[in-house]
Write a structure and sequence with these properties.
seven-stranded parallel sheet; six-stranded parallel sheet; 13 helices
Amino acid sequence: MNTILNITYHNSEGGVKVSFINFAKTLKEFNYKVYNIVPNKKKFSNSLDNIISNPFVRYARHVFSPFSTIYFFIILRILKPKFIFIHNGKLQKIIHLTKPKNCKVIGVNHGISYKKLFLAEHIITFNNKIKDEYLKNNFTNVSVIHHPLSYIPQNILPKNITNKEQVVIGSLGRLDKEKGYEFFIDVIFELHKILKQKFKVIIGGNGPLNNSLKTKIYSLNLEETIELLDWIENKEAFFKSLDIFCLPSKFEAYGLVVTEAMSYGIPVIATNTPGPEFIIQNEKNGLLVNYGNAKEFAEKILYLINEKEEYKTISTNSINFIKEHSTLENFRKNLSDILFT
């Protein structure tokens, strides 16, 4: 049986890990033996088979190590893969030096820079901006695809907030600088000035800004409005409790949580960074705003609350978008086209 190698050095929870697992599970459906090389086997043991715990993957993140070169040279000759999927750019030199001649390397760019994975034979990215940067630099073997959702709720109806006494606004992500939650608190402060209706904000996630965000919430007297939750274990219950989902990130290469919210018919307002711009058609299946403009963001929330028909239309279009673009079947077809055509 032919083999595929699927390699990452990411350990942390989030979109990259979810994507890596989706690649691993989908690639198995092509009747290939899929081996997954990760830096920490325990972090993936509940999700994947054929895991190879490799400390040199983690080491290679920081330095081009002769030990990791030897490791990959040996393992690639034992496994003899036909395809190698690399989910991290800093591994590309090692893989390029050690891969067998008839092996095709496919780089998966989850990040914000196109200056990765140029040594791969084909690159997969998740937004048009990064794809365009590759094309401008004369790298033409590049595909842009949507991340799949491993779970899509069934029989979801368009949401309706007519006559609702309290609107629930939510967000979900790591509490760090990149995700823009300090800015989001400013948005809610502005919303308090213009929205007379009762509303509540819940933020799921954890990270290094947890304490500073709590301090800012109290300093703006928003403790009765904003609730900081920990990382959400039951996402279905979380999303079903929301009326509006907000993504305030400084930058998103994709924004898997956007499509998760849309799958429940929740209208999404997101900053117009490359990932959300690829997912959202402004004012059709969501709303896009400029990062840093808290007043504009607050006005978009107010617009969704006041314009009930527009709210319902966006909810309907969100559900339809997920059915068309975010299924595992669509993802499988995209990978098949990349591998076999």
